[in-house]
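Hey L., structure's done. Input below.
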Amino acid sequence: MSKNALKKGSLAHVNVEEDDPVSSSDELVSEEEFNGMEESEPEAISDVDEKSAKTQISEIPFDTLLAAQKKLMAEQNKTEKKESAVIRKKSQKRDEHEAHERAERKKHAPMEVSSKKPVTRFREVVNVPKKFTRDPRFDSLSGSLNKEKVKNNYSFVFDYRKKEIELLREELKKCKDPERAETIKTTLKSLLSKMERHIEEERTGRVLREQRANEREQVKEGKKPFYMKKSDQKKLVQLDKYKSMEGTKKLDRYLENKMRRRAQKEKKRLPRARSAPSSSS
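Output:
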């Protein structure tokens, strides 16, 4: 059926049939193409913007970009410092609040003990005082050390050592077992060195006592006090030793041994000659 004619001035000459629907193939643009166009439009715009931004950045001088980068980094550091300061203030306030809460607790409140700490199975019923060991050598109750008194009290050890040396010498003369003889020799050597050390200590003490007594007498006469150096004290003891051995063969033997030891020391200090490299044929 044909449609009624339109009024004058309209498209009255166009005849449109009502029952003929417009097919999808006759549409100008399909739905899929329309959707694709909608999606491609922002992508195209973004590509254009990116290209324009790159061209703009390439035209900017390097020093300007460097200054902008420094400014951006400074702003980032400033924001980070502000954030860290805020976090620090919050933690400080929290710690102050916890400390205030701990202070406000009751004095007679039960003590808080960590559950990780192991508890002893045995309960202390009666408080037993702790035992303290005491070493009399390092205790002030034992008094100060008096070497002269100790020497006088243990002087019998020196006499006993003399007798032991005499007995060992007699045994060494009669001994036929080489192993036993070696043992006696080592024991004799140790005892003789101890005896010599004891004699040297006695000589040093005697010489220094005499020197101090002489110095006191001079101070009483009006002279200024003089304190001898340790090196001078050693020289004084050595001089007394030479005087005691004067006129005997001991002095010559002692000087020979001393010269030999000194020569050995000097020989060790001398630089050694390098061995010539062996020539390989």
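Residues 96 and 102 are 10 Å apart (CA to CA). Confidence is low (pLDDT under 50) at residues 1-29.

-- N.
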